[in-house]
Amino acid sequence: MRLLLALLLTALALVTACGDDQPANPALRAELLRMFKEDQEVRTLDAAQEDWARVERANTERTRQILDRHGWPGYALVGEDGAHAAWLLVQHADRDLDLQRRGLDLMRRAVEEGDADPSDLAYLVDRVRVAEGRPQVYGTQWETDPQGAWRPRTPIEDAANVDERRADSGLKPLREYLEELRSAQ
């Protein structure tokens, strides 16, 4: 629960900081931030499973519409916090792998153009690969076993070089990430 609280606080800090540049579509930014907030609230406030499913379905459908109309909502369109919110909504659309794959393709292009965060992309790459039953690239997707020990949800591809890939994406070394997971338990 402490991990969820820490993630929520970090997310809320990102939501409140848009940066100096005004996004091209402030209304879309505000909508993404609202959806982001609702997603985080339902995940961290012990909401009923049906509430969680309702929010996820609504957010997934609206995210699909946003991608259809705008492509990836990157920094220029919705600001850094809006782009991060869009990533989280795609990341959490676990009941719609096709949407996650589509978001991954769009986000990959946005990162190449400097319009999205490479560390967010790394998480989405792993999320999709785990859903497909494939090894992770960056080691971002973990779970606890029945004894409470952390383990990767799927193996990490070329684990000996994972920290190099993580650094290239702006992520801290895997050892530090695992220390954070353990300390938040």
- The succession of helices and strands, N to C, reads HHHHHHEEHH
Number of helices: 8
Q: Biggest sheet: strands side by side, in what order?
A: 1-2
| Percent helix range | 55-70%
| Basic shape | globular
Distance between the terminal alpha carbons, to the nearest Å? 7 Å
How many strands, what sense, and barrel or not for the largest sheet?
2 strands, antiparallel
Please tally the β strands and state the result.
Answer: 2
Rg result: 16 Å
Poorly predicted spans: 1-19
- Quaternary structure: single chain
Residue-averaged pLDDT = 90
Strand share of the residues? under 5%
The helix/strand class is mainly alpha
Description:
With 185 residues, the chain is mostly helical. The chain has a domain of 93 residues. The chain contains eight helices and two strands; from the N terminus they run H-H-H-H-H-H-E-E-H-H. The protein has a two-stranded antiparallel ribbon with strand order 1-2. Helix 1 packs antiparallel against helix 2, helix 2 runs antiparallel to helix 3 and helix 4 packs parallel to helix 6. The longest helix is centred in the first third of the chain and has 22 residues. The radius of gyration is 16 Å and the shape is globular. The N terminus is likely disordered. Keywords: Signal.
Defining key terms:
2 strands, single chain, mainly alpha, Lipoprotein, 3% strand, 185 residues, disordered N terminus, signal, two-stranded antiparallel sheet
Topology:
Blueprint: H1 2-16, H2 26-44, H3 49-70, H4 75-91, H5 97-112, H6 118-131, E1 142-144, E2 150-152, H7 162-168, H8 174-183
Antiparallel strand pairs: 1-2
